[in-house]
Amino acid sequence: MGSEMCIRDSLYVFASSDATQPHNSVPAVSNIIVSVTREAHNSSMNKSNELAENRTDWAEDRTILANERTFAGWMRTGMASLAVAIGLKAVFGDFDPTWAAKAVASIFVVAAVYIFWAAHDAATKTLDRLNDHHANAQPNARMKTLAVIFSFASVAVGGILWML
Questions:
Q1: Residues of the chain with pLDDT > 90: what percent?
Q2: Is the domain of 8 the same as that of 64?
Q3: Terminus of the chain with fewer CB atoms < 10 Å: N or C?
Q4: How far is CA 113 from CA 89, 99, 124, 126, in A?
Q5: Which tens digit of pLDDT belongs to each residue from 119-145?
Q6: pLDDT tens per residue, range 67-122
Q7: Domains identified in the chain, total number
Q8: Residue 5 has pLDDT above 50, yes or no
Q9: Close Cβ partners of 116 (under 8 Å, ≥ 6 residues apart)
Q10: d(Cα 25, Cα 13) in Å, to the nearest integer?
């Protein structure tokens, strides 16, 4: 009487090679075993799919937060460009002709405005492609408001630089 124990998906199945066991009962037993094994497999797949979805949701949330950090970085770069414009005016204040220093400073002001809007466009396009799950994404309107305020302030600084 040879009997073996097989382990699959945490299910113990005894298979018998006993010649006294009737052959007509084997298909019924194997159908039950296949059915139980299939249910265990589907259950583990559902849990696996759920875990994969959670990991994807968390990755999407991390991407949203990274997008906001990137937006903030570009806004800082725009502010740095504006600082260079102000610094050029301070360094070349008595430069003759004065229009040359003002023109170069104006290039940095225009670059700052461009950077603000490029940051806004990139951030909103990325945010439109993603769904937030547990992270609270900054709304697109807030990013636009920041781009408008920084752009208006940059143009005002450029105007002041030309009046000096």
A1: 37
A2: no
A3: N
A4: 18, 21, 17, 20
A5: 999 999 988 887 777 778 888 899 999
A6: 999 999 999 999 999 999 999 878 877 778 888 888 889 999 999 999 999 999 99
A7: 2
A8: no
A9: 74, 75, 78, 146, 147, 150, 151, 154
A10: 15
CA distances from 103 to 48, 66, 99, 150, 158 (A): 61, 36, 6, 20, 10
Distance CA 106, CA 88 (A): 10
Enclosing domain of residue 42:
3-49
- Helix ranges (H only) for the chain are 26-91, 98-129, 140-163
- CA 54/CA 73 separation, integer angstroms: 29
Cα–Cα distance between 36 and 57 in angstroms, integer?
A: 32
